[in-house]
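Good day; I would like, with your permission, to put a structural problem before you. What I wish to show you is a protein chain and, alongside it, a tokenised description of its three-dimensional fold. Thank you for your consideration; the sequence and its tokens are set out here:
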Amino acid sequence: MARIGVVSISDGRDHVHARNAGFIQSKQDALVRSLSAAGHEVVAGSELVATNTLATSVAREVAEAGVDVTVFYYAVWSFPHFTMLAADATRSPLVLVASTDPTEPGLVGMLAAGGALDQIGRAHTRLWGAPDDAELVEKIGVQARAASAVASLRGSTFGRFGGRPMGMNTAVANTDQWMRQFGIDVEEIDQYELVLRAERADAGEAAKAREWIEAHAAGVHYDGKKLTPELLERQIRSYLAIRDIIAERKLDFSGIKGQPELTEHFATMDVTEAFLNDPYDWNGPKDVHVTATEADMDGALTMQLFHRITGTPVLFADVRHYHADRDIWDLCNSGQHATWYAARSDDPAENLAKVHFYPEVFFFPAGGASVQHIAAPGRMTLGRLTREAGEYRLQLMLGEFESYDDATNTELMRQSTPEWPHAFARLDVAGERFLSEFGANHIHAVPGDVRAELRAAAALLGVRVDEWSRG
């Protein structure tokens, strides 16, 4: 969860503050308890703000604790200039929260403070309610989770293995814009580094991993040509090589070009990408390392934002086909549908029991395994950061992943590429609008409805939201 600062603003008249202090403190304590019970770490100001000097010193004290978001709390009428001074002393996103207890004018205090912040152009969010109101606590949590995710992007490094794949303009972003708008650096790494390190990787570890996959997967379908134990181990050694590079260069998330050099002459990166994005491998639980196939920079940025908000792996797919008769999209590509999506279980054995490793198809002469499964059903948030005339936008929607009986699943997969992973998605947007307006060939998804957090994150990033629904 997030770290939330709480600063309560009071009246500047000594006799009024003396009368109100106990009331303010009781409301603040109740809000802190509610936020803590929701799982957040709360840093409360050591004093109530009733003077100019306290406005600055208390806000600085809370800011120095490294909070993700700062709540200015209004239980009573509060002098607005205290808010202005406190806001100047912190750089975290601000949430103004008013108590709705009618015995004191907390709403009046918040509106006066918010109007003052508007006049100087200081962005903030306004919320209100009782301190134990579950809806209020959730709304503060939304803002805090979004702020934490956005803050985690700043100062991070994206590892870009290779350059633009197959002329794909939407996979390449301006590195200056990334640094200016998101605070992200881009480390360029030649794919030859991956090849060299893969050849030197621990053969014993690769064999151990191959045996683990063979023991747990629904099937490893060796054909003696495109998929052999040696080729599967080459893919695993590529995973080991990239893990080493990630550790050495302190990469926070990555993308691998793959096509055409690796897929023509070395091996596909499907196994490598799948396990980088998974929360486990053959050695047990591990951190997800967001990795986009085709070195898709905006895809990786979307995935990293989604991951930082949810903590889960993020699905990456082509928008392959629209089954108009069913109003179902086949989200499918050769790449890194993390195996976690097969069952979305904490137990890797449960996920892998639904995963097949098939020989790669004709697109990829170098061969290797594709990582095939059907994504488990459930409510999903889908979208992508795309650019229009150089400006970022977040195209966002809800959807449902669906799965059917074996015969239907097989028939639907057969119509595209059955050897690749599939997510059959019913999107909350008309097919004609999606195809007319979506700004890329790649789309991304996470479980649940996290649109509120993504809207808040987009606002903090200066990104407009294009949210689609059928309503």
Notes: The mean pLDDT is 96. The two ends are 32 Å apart (CA to CA). The CA atoms of residues 117 and 123 lie 7 Å apart.
